[in-house]
Amino acid sequence: MPITHYKIDMYNVDYTCDKCGKGVMRPLRDGIQMVDQTKGIPHKCNNDMCLHVDMLKINYPFQMAVKEGDEVKLADDEENPEADA
Ligand SMILES: [Zn+2]
Q1: Does 43 fall in a domain?
Q2: For position 77, what pLDDT does the model report?
């Protein structure tokens, strides 16, 4: 297999709070062991005025690398079924 290389763009993917729209969701580390992870990972809004807790499928934030010029594709989220714009 010939060696090849290309540039990548790095993206940080974060989840904005559904409730306040200001904070971002951060994993609730303490809750992880006690929770059935098939239902999601508990996250809490980092906005002190909100502190909304929600179950998310993925641990946020995370980084992803995309080949330079390629579209960023994120897995469909139940909460944003129309998010393919
Ligand atoms: Zn919030």
Answers
A1: yes
A2: 52
Structure confidence by residue, pLDDT tens digits, 1-57: 799 999 999 999 999 999 999 999 999 876 555 556 677 888 999 999 999 999 998
**Domain that residue 42 falls in:** 14-61
Gap from CA of 71 to ligand 1 centroid (Å)? 28
DSSP labels, 45-79 = E--TTT--EEEESS-SSEEEEEETTPPP-----TT
CA of 47 to the centre of ligand 1 (A): 5
pTM: 0.70
Q: What is the pLDDT of residue 83?
A: 45
Residue 41 lies in a domain: yes
User: How many domains are there within the chain?
Assistant: 1
Q: How many angstroms separate the alpha carbon of residue 8 from the centre of ligand 1?
A: 32
- Which is it for the CA torsion 65, 66, 72, 76, positive or negative? negative
